[in-house]
Design goal:
- With about 400 residues, the chain is of the alpha/beta class.
- Helices cover about 60% and strands about 10% of the residues.
- Helix 1 packs antiparallel against helix 2 (about 25-40) and helix 9 crosses helix 11.
- The chain is elongated.
- It starts with a helix and ends in a 14-residue tail after the last strand.
Length: about 400
Amino acid sequence: MYRLPSVLASIGTIVLAGLIGLRQSRLEGRIAVILTSWSYLLIHFGTEARGYSLAIFFTLLAWYALQQFEERRSWIWTIVFWSAVVLGFLAHLEFAICFAGLVAWALWRFVRYRSKWRQGVLDLFALFTVPIVLLLAFYFVAVRGMEVGGGPEYQVTPLLIKTASYMLGGPASGAAAGIAALLAVASIYVVLVYLMFARDDRWIFYAVVIMAPLGLIAILLLVPLSVRYFMISVAASLVLLSSGYTALLRRGVAGLAIGLTLLAIFVAGNAVNTVNLLRFGRGQYLATLRFIEKNSDSREVVITSDHDFRNGMLVNYYRRCLARPDSMRYANGATLNKGGADWFILHRFDLTGRRDQVTDEYGNAYELVRIYRYSDNSGWNWLLYHNLNRPLVPPQTLLSR
């Protein structure tokens, strides 16, 4: 049940993407639905009990409400906009990227197209005063002094390549990922230029939302970043690209053929990544513990690892699903005796440089028995080692990754 809000927000994201596209044409609305519903990244983070899916939903809701207000200047859409902005920030602070785009578009639109500058100021005041006041209170009460707890080490360029490649359905790394990332950047650039020449000022919102994270990287360079911190930009890019697909499909037979081919490649690539998510999930932690339970004969099975917080939390959570949960205990450095544990878990975000044997702080040797993989982006691989001084029951050999 704790994933339900994210799942519902994911469904709402698809609906809102379609509504935003429908503002231009039925075809664009349908393309937006296809892109958002097949996106591996939206599926991945839309099924997690975190705030990213909600932040994406409120991003599109705020953008849609702002455009509706511009056409109708209704208090209903003003209240919807207020709600979307406030709830978006409460969902995740990444919403600040969206808010910057909303402010930029509103300033441009209201100042440029209002017959009287006073009316533009009044509209801006009506839309942004309430959210800003509430957000200032939220900042001083909850955000000020907040620190990032930590995360895996990363390099900026591979991270950006992975994000852009995943967005189009490419792989996480390698030459193919680089090509997919270049195609993603080129596609976004072309569609932005297309909107500029068409005098469609939506490009302002999309350009700010997509480019703002790049500017923040310089400020947050010491903060552990991940693909999930770019999800609002990814969602905005997909909605933007629906405009490009629509324009391409209307360019005669050749444009239709190219557009449908690119759309099929997008769907197929994202389907492959989604299948990988379904296969490995965010880690095979329960499968690991079940293997340990099956291959341990002692009354108390002791497990230790290379990271007490990450792995200990998972062991204590998933052992409740075992047939004999009380027989399994996680031991950290302070509670581990000189004889060592029965099992040792190494967690790794990639499988490069893995070792067939490891030792604990007391010099006890452990041999690699199994590797339990995860898909990517959330979770980690578990490398399972067994104490060489305690025979397996039944005896096992090194099994496949």
